[in-house]
Amino acid sequence: MIAEYPPMGWNSWDCYGAAVTEAQVRANAEYMAEHLKAYGWEYVVVDIQWYQPTAVSHEYEPFSDEPMDGYGRLLPAENRFPSAKGGAGFGPLADYVHSLGLKFGIHIMRGLPRMAAHRRLPILNSDYRCDQAANPNSVCAWNPDMYGLKCDHPGAKAYYDSIFALYAEWGVDYVKCDDIAREYPHCQREIELISEACRACGRDMVLSLSPGPAPLDRAEHLKKHANMWRVTDDFWDDWRLLKGMFERAEKWCVHAAPGHWPDADMLPVGALRQCYDSHPDGQWTRFTQAEQRTMMTLWCMMRSPLMVGGDLPKNDVFTLNLLTNADVLDIEKDSWCAHPLYTTAEESAWIAPRKDGKGCYVAAFNLSDRARKISVNPALVERRCARAAELWTGKPARGGQLSAKLAAHDSAVWRVEY
Amino acid sequence: MIAEYPPMGWNSWDCYGAAVTEAQVRANAEYMAEHLKAYGWEYVVVDIQWYQPTAVSHEYEPFSDEPMDGYGRLLPAENRFPSAKGGAGFGPLADYVHSLGLKFGIHIMRGLPRMAAHRRLPILNSDYRCDQAANPNSVCAWNPDMYGLKCDHPGAKAYYDSIFALYAEWGVDYVKCDDIAREYPHCQREIELISEACRACGRDMVLSLSPGPAPLDRAEHLKKHANMWRVTDDFWDDWRLLKGMFERAEKWCVHAAPGHWPDADMLPVGALRQCYDSHPDGQWTRFTQAEQRTMMTLWCMMRSPLMVGGDLPKNDVFTLNLLTNADVLDIEKDSWCAHPLYTTAEESAWIAPRKDGKGCYVAAFNLSDRARKISVNPALVERRCARAAELWTGKPARGGQLSAKLAAHDSAVWRVEY
Amino acid sequence: MIAEYPPMGWNSWDCYGAAVTEAQVRANAEYMAEHLKAYGWEYVVVDIQWYQPTAVSHEYEPFSDEPMDGYGRLLPAENRFPSAKGGAGFGPLADYVHSLGLKFGIHIMRGLPRMAAHRRLPILNSDYRCDQAANPNSVCAWNPDMYGLKCDHPGAKAYYDSIFALYAEWGVDYVKCDDIAREYPHCQREIELISEACRACGRDMVLSLSPGPAPLDRAEHLKKHANMWRVTDDFWDDWRLLKGMFERAEKWCVHAAPGHWPDADMLPVGALRQCYDSHPDGQWTRFTQAEQRTMMTLWCMMRSPLMVGGDLPKNDVFTLNLLTNADVLDIEKDSWCAHPLYTTAEESAWIAPRKDGKGCYVAAFNLSDRARKISVNPALVERRCARAAELWTGKPARGGQLSAKLAAHDSAVWRVEY
Amino acid sequence: MIAEYPPMGWNSWDCYGAAVTEAQVRANAEYMAEHLKAYGWEYVVVDIQWYQPTAVSHEYEPFSDEPMDGYGRLLPAENRFPSAKGGAGFGPLADYVHSLGLKFGIHIMRGLPRMAAHRRLPILNSDYRCDQAANPNSVCAWNPDMYGLKCDHPGAKAYYDSIFALYAEWGVDYVKCDDIAREYPHCQREIELISEACRACGRDMVLSLSPGPAPLDRAEHLKKHANMWRVTDDFWDDWRLLKGMFERAEKWCVHAAPGHWPDADMLPVGALRQCYDSHPDGQWTRFTQAEQRTMMTLWCMMRSPLMVGGDLPKNDVFTLNLLTNADVLDIEKDSWCAHPLYTTAEESAWIAPRKDGKGCYVAAFNLSDRARKISVNPALVERRCARAAELWTGKPARGGQLSAKLAAHDSAVWRVEY
User: Fold this and answer.
1) Any CB–CB contact under 8 A between C253 and chain D?
2) pLDDT at residue D21, rounded to an integer
3) Residue B376: CB partners within 8 Å, gap ≥ 6?
4) Is a pLDDT exceeding 90 seen at residue A41?
5) Mutate which of A382, A384, A385, A417 to test chain B, going by most B C-beta atoms within 10 A?
6) pTM of the entire structure?
7) Do the beta carbons of residue C228 and residue C7 sit within 8 Å?
8) Which chain A residues have a beta carbon less than 8 Å from that of D115?
9) Which of these, A388, B394, C196, C318, is most buried using a 10 Å CB contact count?
10) Surface-to-core class of residue B302, CB atoms within 10 Å of its CB (0-12 exposed, 13-18 middle, 19+ buried)
11) Please, are residues C94 and C35 in contact by the beta-carbon 8 Å criterion?
């Protein structure tokens, strides 16, 4: 089963924007294999514009000359991904990642390259050309590369089949498709075409849809056609964004289950914004350690996918520990049916039964800007706790009392046993 | 704790509208004591306009002369509730219900009687008069009896305190307050005043708010101030309304917990509309037996309160069995953290872990208009089922397969054991 | 023809609120007869709550005991209107106003008194009672006196016929009906009933509808059923309100014609708020002299009715001159088809052809907060001006140039001759 | 002064769509010179996609190869406009139109050609390239040719200056700019750039903005920056569209004045849809003769520009007479300050004073689907009519009575003299 549990991995966007290089990807993969793989981390994902020879930051250069094959399929920029030379595409890099015991993923934009339409290139294994399948009025609001497809034209299916065939050849395990998850209703059919092409390509690939917020009232469509989808716009290291995630988590938590996971976006921890000599927001995460615990706790309780955004080799001890707390990470696999008990302006509490029936997880979040003692009402837990341990500190809960004095923005999470 | 589990009982509205009499209430209480009490049913609730001498149907007569005491507190119409004579109010009737081992509830409208304001009656234990506390511009859109209160005037608190003091004297255990649950934001403060008066009156009373749909974004306010609140407009014996409840159940299920329960409204089963010689919709429930199973299953899985709407003494065997299936009713007390696995136009499936950790409940609903085999994907249940039994038929699930051939609108619900 | 020209008169609201007395009305009528009548001013209008014995300000007392006859028709409070004694109603006061060569008007709220419904009073010349015609859910959002009527009940027409019959007996010439002009669509039928009762009562009466803003998309309904209607919410002596009137005037000007006039509301000039010993906004108009000229110019150009709000006997020389500039007042009768040439944040210009074909009026408004020279582009006037005179200063326009240096918020208006 | 009166002319769209040829343009110009010029018709306008070599209908072919010069300025397709050969552009055709005593106009889309951006062509007289000035996310919703400009980039102004310089060289007198009039607020700055380029180019050109509906609340911006702008989406020969125009005319009429005219769109009369062998809607106008009179009457009363849409040489006698009724056409020049007297579902009446002061025009429209006698209430005309003549029939109005029996959708218009 694809995505039986929420996928875990690394994504190049937060640290390298549109400009990541093969060397950086390899270094992150190697770090993951050595330090993280044992904890369940496995996907190494190259984010947007790997085909753009001139990318240097998080900005997109319009009207650039992007490498593509004779069928309008984009190819990695060889100046950034040397192993792609000679038409090898991402095959060699995928092979290398696989050799480390990991899985390889890429980002795509929905649609086909604008110049493939203007050049009227043929679509592989079809009688159609790119200009016939492209919709000249369907352009992404924030990226200049593609035209969306005319989904009722047979060339659209042929084009999507052609790119997933190529990705299968390369050995891709994970595709993050962008400009689509919040683009209902006009992209509903395009999601279906992409999903069908992905599943018919002959290789297991996780299909991830971006950006959010995906519309809640299309949850069933998303669950049917994707393995994960963003429930939020781009998430960065800003407390207001993290606090806002509690509302989205509450609405989406009932839709998390094997095969389809609401996605709260990358974890902006550690070394971010590395494609700049300096950056106004700084290059290390602006989240406090407390906030990072809160983020990890919420993501795990809601069973969101976990994709690290920071440059892994630069991790400090705190960050590595954060990402390798096995007890906390276990929540993703051992719990189910999580939901908030309550959420106010100052605090929130969540509960998640354990699937093995031996207990549950209870999390308490201090959403206020000062230290605060939070005690979860035992009546809401509905079962007498025999024992409980807090998973960030390892401390047992005295008398089964789920209570903690928490610093501003910090959280606690207990494994409760009956 | 008040409402540790979702309240269960009977309400007079569906069968007797605004016109129920003491004799009818006593007959229903006696039936409940004899046939239903053992299964957890306990509240006997007199619905709207028990003060209206001329009520004969579900309609409200405007500008009638309603009995009230010298403090503007409504009293039962003595022609309908003879035991109220001599100023006894609902005391004697409450006593009788209590003598059967049951609990007694009444309906109120927010505000005070219009004529109490026009007569400028004093408010008990205060220096204020009803005309000072009443807001002449706050009238209910569908009932002509009351003026809402000026919640920032001290007379408003005094008035609500005065009526709950009276209800405590009478021995009331349950108050259903109407014209308020969906009236956010303008009634937010009025909800708080009523909640505070209820909790301070010296007697445990369930506080139930109507009508719905209560706004989802005020869930925390409702959880704090009420024990149950309607998530829907009036619910009747119409399949479209029942089918529509699945969407509301999905949104509200995460807010059900001890002390506060989203309420899907009364169960319109058995003998309805009994205050008419005949009624265009008929007097027996128009729900099929399949639909009634589906309703009971959904209400139990979402842990909604259960209030029967039909005239209990007229129950047939089917209805009595429906209301006394102990295995199904157990779901309300034994499960938690329920949520839908998926809901499409044709079918829905729900899951609810058991609090004792020994298994879970899984329900399958045929929402389509024809017979349909529904098989719940084992991957979604996330645990291997050792054994499972369907609770309406008692049949074991062969090989742990959660699969059933269901008639139109019918449902199955399995108790799964690990 | 009723209201062949925009009605001109005085209204008691701005100076005496709900509390005006007969002596004050008589004093204003006498002043009007002596100083204003020659300039076209003729209506003397008693505004809201003349039936309220305890009114002292612009506030409304709820749940008071209002005088009414045995048919639920309100009568003047005799403590305020002594000539109404003995059931004479407004007859003697109307007679006195008529004796001065003027016309008499009153204000009413749509609907019938709440207590007429609660008392179940009969409706004159009908088989119905007030409780049958009243809609207990139709209450005014800002005044506590009335219930709106069930317009599809025959008692509603009977009630409105009964009050207009009474007003005709009294000798009323002008009825300002409130809580109705902006209450589309739910009051559309009520407007029709009132209009029909007014026109069938046997006496010519101007029918004026309040409060605004009346919806522009119902202009034809208003033109058919009323003689004037408010295009704005209550207008007071505040520059922001006056500046905002330019937008409404632009939208409504095409609907001004004999018999039906968009109404920009009373002129708050001179002695306002006289029912207070003092008032936070002061008791004399806060409009500058420049602003008062601008108001008069705009009202005349758009052909709005003119109803003075100040206590006339207290007029100073400026105010009297403002209200007796015959050249400016002539615009109301001599022009037609007026409209703005343009309106920006800083200035506006209007044009109005003269009906006699001998020229046109051109107005220039300085909407900015500092002195400003405004020159109206001759191309927009489309005709060569032979001569032009400015009507506030009396100065001829040199060389036909429509140009003026205007103080902040001031205006100029020229009579242009070909 | 540019556009002192509402422009009158012919436009190729209704009859030849995107496919008009030089021969067709010349034939229409010749017809205009011979038959229409004497009545004020003067502009000959080549509508959309004159640069598209493959255009054959009203459809736009995406991703075609359009002729442009080295600065990204589109050139006429030489296969359709032979005189453009050798880089002459529209110069020779403009010269020919001028030689007939007429004026020449062209259509443009806002923005620059997509391929000019992808080819990174330089912008004339600037240091910028087309890819720098183009906004890759600003595409027209219905036409695939252009990218809108980044209006805060100096290259945007340079590009618009460059194309208007070319049009001035060619001798263009009228530019209809498309994809812009309803595109507020995001195109507000682009309108300003185009307006400034047009006025600074050294040649008088009418600037017309399309398509509508332009937003009424931006009327002053449009009046300042354009000579005419569409108040409606595309208008065709369909009664529902014509009936709907009365509402727009009412809202916009106050904004018509020398230099700036609200535009009700082309007159679809005579031979339409000539670029098809046949067309489902037929090739001759589907308007009845009555409807055509109604359209001409309304357009003249509201002083809309008049641009014929039919292929002029194919005019029949009725159409030629319709377009050469000098009395009706005079309304455009002789009247001002027009507005509707009233408009109901069945009929409308308009009034327009004459600028010379000698009378006015009154029009009556039968909007119902059956014959109807319409009598305009003399009170609304406000002046006693000495004489009046109906301008379509030439008949005098007996006794000055403005009354006519009108066929379904027909109209009458009187010149009233005092």
Assistant:
1) yes
2) 98
3) B341, B349, B362, B364, B402, B403
4) yes
5) A382
6) 0.93
7) yes
8) 118
9) A388
10) buried
11) no
